[in-house]
Design a protein that fits this description.
mainly alpha, 133 residues, Four Helix Bundle (Hemerythrin (Met), subunit A), 4 helices
Amino acid sequence: MDPKDAVHAAALWAGLHLILLLVLSVLVTRQRRRHRIEVGDGGVPALAQAIRAFGNASEHVPAALAGLAILALAGAPPLLIHPIGLVLFVGRVLHGIGLSRSTAATWVRAAGAVGTWIAYIAMAAALLFYAIP
């Protein structure tokens, strides 16, 4: 295995997650323009949801991308990085959709949260495995 393959795998998932963050950010901007609100949510539920969806992704994605990058640098194979990146990405997309559409606890939002946690657990276990010389 070429060590660059793992870095390329991590780069793929980092790029896709950055696109997701961009989309969520654009949704916030659209709501701000629609309701003419520059700061805060102005008490507009749709804007509050968009802000929270972006905020939640902003809270979870950076640490996960750091974990994927460290896995790549530690020599983890792409066949480990890709499934974790996929589960994380699907989880974040589902959670973003769920949180953008409803403030209630929906199955889409719950599935997204569980997917994110599964990716975190798999990544943490892999990082601990690669930490042992």
